[in-house]
Amino acid sequence: MKSSALASLRIYWLAVVLCCGGILFGYDSGVIGGVLTFQSFQDDFRYGKSDKTRVSSIAVGIQQAGALVGCFVVWPVANRYGRRISIMACSLIFCIGVILEVINTHALPAFYVGRVICGLGIGGSSTVIPIYMSEMSPKEIRGRLGSCYQLMYTIGILISYWIDYGVKFMKATPTQWQLPIGLQIVPAALMGLGMLTLKESVRWLVLKGHYDKAWTSLVWIRASGSEEVEIEFSEMQQGVEDDRHAMAGFKLKELLEWPNAHRTLLGFGLFLAQQSTGSTALAYFGPQFFSLLVGPGDKNLLLTGIFGAIKVIACLLFVLFISDRFGRRPLLMAGAVFMAACMITTSAVVKAHKPPGNGTVTSAGVATVALLYLNIIAYNLSWGPLPWPCTSEIFPARIREPGVAFGVGSQWLFNFVWSFSTPYIMSGIGWGTFLLFGILDIFIFGFVFFCVRETANKTLEEINAMFEPVMVHHVDVEPAKDDDENGESVEHGKDAAPTTHVEHAT
After folding, report:
1. DSSP letters along 360-390, please?
2. pTM tops 0.90, yes or no
3. What pLDDT, in 10s, does the model give residues 228-280?
4. Which of 31, 127, 113 is nearest to 77 (CA)?
5. With contact defined as beta carbons under 8 Å apart, do 304 and 33 qualify?
6. What is the CA 289 to chain-centroid distance, rounded?
7. Which residues pair with 503 in a beta bridge?
8. Could you read off the pLDDT of 418-447 as tens digits, one per residue?
9. In whole angstroms, what is the distance from residue 260 CA to residue 214 CA?
């Protein structure tokens, strides 16, 4: 086998292993909403109809809280012990959490503990995997491989929806809810075991001074020790050294200094907006949302399954045709406006034509389902993928790592806020839930219009300059002078050209 073919095989094998983490993330996000609708789950954990809202809120929200903790805890572990060990540890932690979840203890607190442990594994792996992917991928296909993680996330959601739909027709025994929950262990175990076949991150090894191991790892993943690979290795060493100098003496309080605080607030705002579009809530509580549109019944799991398939198609369209062809701002603004229209129209239709509740799907129900499908298409062509590159682009090297960490942390924070509060919102205001998200989408449009700057097709240096203020220190007016008939100098004050000294703040 030629070295180029072997190199392609190895890098795509690495992507397959890491994308198991994307499938795991998506599957875990989508499976719980359907499980919470099963009567067998309610019977085994002994809670009634009056407790549904509380259980749904805690079961989903508590895992996002664990993920929030996990995404920060994993940073020192990954920096000290390496990316490979960290990902395997996250896999093991997640598997332990799944085991605790599927044990039929008849005690919700025990189930919640399993959810928290799973959250730690999810939060940690979702942070380290993109780093490891970018550090090992050839620059020519780095963007494509990174996009595959997002695509696999949507596929994981799709798989979970259809598994929930399939087991709905099983007998109402513990197996009905244990099977979809237990299947989470498959992608988690495949990811952990697959990491045993891969090498440690070249960049991390260089950072730690293990140059021989770093060279061995690079030669393995490139399947070559050619001059081209030697040049890449030298550039990587220089890049690590440059980053080391850039980070020298860094203190967290620098994030509070303007314009760093401007960048940090912008990253915070992008992920707050992403989680406030309503699409995260739809992903977790799809069956419950469709119940507001067409009434209760098994058809809600079917509609949720179709919803998941549409997410995958939209994400694939973004990766193949849209990701680098349009600016960030136009897509974000268009997405917000379109989602606002879908949500507000849905709320108006549901308010005027409530579902009959007898299993009949009316034309109003069909229309509102179509609007939610259009809404999720708009999300996956804009707010789903774009906050990630936007956030990574706005930070200079000196504060990129803590800045991006803050952004990712805010993503998990607001993921938790909406996943925990949505069941109460739906229970309290019903159709008004759609109106709430529609109004928020309008505010999100305003946020982009007034606060977000275009970063597409700009170098990191050009982006950095956009955030650095231009200060005019002083203006010196030097009057022009001419000699009169007697040789005396004459000043022309009005016609004198001012000399302006302009400096860029550094």
Report:
1. PPPHHHHHHHHHHHHHHHHHHTTTTTTHHHH
2. no
3. 899 989 988 988 888 788 778 888 888 888 888 999 999 999 999 999 999 98
4. 127
5. yes
6. 22
7. 471
8. 999 999 999 999 999 999 999 999 999 999
9. 33
